[in-house]
Amino acid sequence: MVIWGLVLGAMLVAIVAYLCLPGLLRQRRPQEPPLDKGCIPWVGHAMAFQKNMFEFLRGKWAKDGDVFTVLLGGEFFTFVMDPLSFRPIIKNTEKKLDFVQYAEEVVQKVYGYQRLQGDYQIIHTASTKYLMGDGLKDLNQAVLDCLSLVLLEPGDPKLGATHWQEDGLFHFCYNIMFKAGYLSLFGCTKDKEQDLLQAEEVFKKFRRFDILLPRFLYSLLGPRERLEMGQLQCLFHKMLSVRHNQEKEEGMSNWLRHMLRYLSEWGTTPAVLAKFSFMMLWASQGNMGPSSFWALLFLLKHPEAMQAVKDEAAQVLRGTKLEAKQSFVLPISALGRTPVLDSVMEETLRLAAAPTLVRVVQEDCTLKMASGHEYLLRRGDRVALFPYLSVHMDPDIHPEPCTFKFDRFLNPNGSRKVDFYKKGKKIHHYSMPWGSGVSICPGRFLALSEMKLFVLLMVTYFDLELVEPDTPVPPIDPGRWGFGITQPSHEVHFRYRLKPMD
Ligand code: HEM
Ligand SMILES: *[C@@H]1O[C@H](CO)[C@@H](O)[C@H](O)[C@H]1NC(C)=O
After folding, report:
1. Which of the residues 78, 267, 316, 360 could staple to 69 if both were Cys, CB 3.0 to 4.6 A apart?
2. How far apart are the first and last CA of the chain?
3. pLDDT tens digits along 100-157
């Protein structure tokens, strides 16, 4: 017995030591960035990071300068904060930084989906074909139809009466955008009322998953929540399985159909297809509600911006009417003639988008900074960018960076402004809501047109007001930095009603 106890004890010590090794043994070598392992072996600074990544990085940046390495949960992350030095990282000029490996690790943990060789190419091909250019036109029409369906709920007497209703703005935007996005990509059946009920059900689960996700990724959920997360994952795999959705096949977007067809031709099992669909549901819907919320909130808080958007909308939508309260009629081509709304969306994303871009170092290499400084990077480490802090909030690139200026991305002659400068040098990456380089979001054009359609409908066909007009813009939930679009730390209440039509 005693012997076994000793052996077990020794094994435990060995395991713990092995896990802590990277933190304990590693020393900064000459020419490497400043290294900070924190006080807790293996964990490093993960707690402070999870609590408020923005504040943590701001502090490190002020102390250590533009490049520094921190230990986070057993991995070393080298953050690069100087946007003038982003180019070689994004372009991967030395071919030594890899995006897929990191994405694989995350995807496996969150969706239970083990990435297949080449699925990245399938996503890319399908997205280029159906989420951009001409292929996007059909999808935009489907999105508009679904927005009509969700906003006007046929058979629902509430809206017909055009009286005021109250809701949380965040909940309202997330709910509407999710249901419209889900139905347009994953398909509808002939029974619209049933589809709406089902979409509502999926939304509730999705939102719960969304709330648990950041702490899940940092492995900080309690046992109860971990169990719930497991159940949610199973539920999604079931709800999104091909068999479950057979009758939807017809209404499914070409984008998803194309990807699923290719994957099955490779012999992918139905169970894996469901996990893939779950990943696509998350990628396509996790940011749409939150960004639409910020856009409407900024417009409600800035009457001059709201007026400018309304004026532009009235101009491009001249003569279109709500037909017998059945659906919104809006020429999709109008989306190409809205420079003011485009600037509003770009400004909203500058203030709301806070993704982390990560690459894994494949071989020891050097990082050349714009200043001429060179740093050594170690194989297996991660290189990370957090453009919200280092670009979006840089007062040199964007004067008064915390202020919403709806015309920040407009030239005086009304065209889109693309000239931004840092230290007098023209800067290419002046806003990075979609990531950049090989991993740039393939859904960005769809995302923009979907959000623009939503805002156009809301300001054109609805009266909107904040319940408390003086309520300030709520602070950002500090536990979600780095996960794409930020979320507010509390709700904002508003009223809306369908405008009486004559
Ligand atoms: C406001 C809305 C959205 C934002 C801010 C956003 C942003 C992003 C970001 C930052 C990434 C990761 C880039 C990286 O790792 O470097 C990403 C990946 C992705 N996005 Fe989006 N996205 C949005 C909407 C959408 C929509 C509507 C779709 C599709 C219909 C979509 C599809 C994808 C896919 C498939 C990927 C992952 C590609 C892969 O891992 O292979 N996104 N998005
Ligand atoms: C509008 O102004 C910008 C710079 O202010 C200029 O680059 C662009 O060519 C102008 N466009 C037109 C149509 O005049």
Report:
1. 78
2. 88
3. 887 888 888 888 888 777 788 999 999 999 999 998 999 999 999 999 999 987 666 5
Supply the pLDDT for residue 20.
58
| Residue 253 CB partners (closer than 8 Å, separation 6+) | 130, 139, 142, 184, 185, 186, 187
- Helix, strand or coil, per DSSP, at residue 80: strand
Is there a binding annotation on residue 287? yes
pLDDT at 379 over 60: yes
Ligand nearest to the CA of 290: 1
- Cβ contact 245:141 at 8 Å: no
CA dihedral 331, 332, 337, 341 (to 10 degrees): 110
| pLDDT score of 181 | 98
CA angle 217, 178, 471 (to 5 degrees): 85
- From 20-29, 37-46, 176-185, 354-363, the region with the lowest mean pLDDT: 20-29
What is the structure's pLDDT at 497? 92
Kind of pairing between the strands at 462-466 and 493-498: antiparallel
97 exposure class (CB count in 10 Å sphere: 0-12, 13-18, 19+): buried
Closest C-alpha to 340, from 428, 169, 459: 459
pLDDT in tens, 193-240: 999 999 999 999 999 999 999 999 888 899 999 999 999 999 999 999
Selected residue with higher pLDDT from 468 and 94 = 468
Map out the domains of the chain as residue ranges.
119-355+388-498
- pLDDT confidence of residue 242: 74
Q: Determine the atom of ligand 2 nearest the C-alpha atom of 411.
A: 5
C-alpha dist (Å) from residue 28 to 63, 102, 136 = 17, 24, 50
Q: State the greatest distance between any 2 C-alpha atoms of the chain, in Å, as a whole number.
A: 89
| Mean pLDDT of the region 349-376 | 96
pTM of the model: 0.94
Protein fold of 119-355+388-498: Cytochrome p450 (1.10.630)
Q: Which residues pair with 98 in a beta bridge?
A: 360
pLDDT at 161 over 60: no
Q: Rounded CA gap, 155 and 148, in Å?
A: 13
Range list of H helices, 267-421: 270-285, 288-301, 303-316, 339-352, 387
Which amino acid is located at 478 in the chain? P
Residue pair 154/188 in contact (Cβ under 8 Å)? The answer is: no
Ligand 2 centroid – CA 414 distance (Å): 8
Start-end of H helices in 187-318: 192-217, 223-239, 254-265, 270-285, 288-301, 303-316
- Is residue 464 within 8 Å of residue 497, measured between CB atoms? no
CA of 415 to the centre of ligand 2 (A): 6
Q: What residues flank ligand 2, with Cβ below 6 Å?
A: 411, 413, 415
